[in-house]
Amino acid sequence: MKKLALGWARSVPCKACGLRVSVSPLPAVAAMLPSMAVVLAVTLRWVRDPALMIMLGVVALSISFVLHLWAVPLIRTQLTDPRAVARARGQDQGDQLPR
């Protein structure tokens, strides 16, 4: 669920390796298309019934959430830091570089 709050401009430490990760920008924008389509339809007054607006909004948000969780990959945003990798693997070696 933390992936839903992660946008392409924000990065967080990976639980597996300790390096910073974010989501890929183009798939993240593509996952928002259903919600943007509903906003466009309401703004252009193609949809005027309030109940239909709410229903379309809930459906579009649900589809966007599922797409974001399923189709948007995580990407590395930090260059490899050997100490972070060693720490994540439980092999903390201080200032020594792994061989």
Q: Helical stretch count? A: 4
Overall body shape: elongated
- Quote the average pLDDT: 85
Distance between the amino and carboxyl termini: 36 Å
Strand content: 5-15%
* Percent helix: 40-55%
Q: Largest sheet, order of strands side by side?
A: 1-2-3
Task: Describe the model.
This protein is 47% helix and 9% strand. The protein contains four helices and three strands; from the N terminus they run E-E-H-H-H-E-H. It is mainly alpha-helical and 99 residues long. A hairpin with a 6-residue loop joins strand 1 and strand 2. Strands 1-2-3 form a three-stranded antiparallel sheet. Helix 2 packs antiparallel against helix 3.
Task: Name the descriptors.
three-stranded antiparallel β-sheet; 47% helix; single chain; elongated; 99 residues; mainly alpha
In brief, what are we looking at here?
The chain crosses the membrane at residues 26-44, 51-71. This protein is mainly alpha-helical and 99 residues long. The chain is 47% helix and 9% strand.
Task: Set out the fold topology.
Layout lengths: L11 E2 L6 E4 L1 H7 L1 H11 L6 H22 L2 E3 L5 H7 L11
Antiparallel strand pairs: 1-2, 2-3
Helix pairs in contact: 2-3
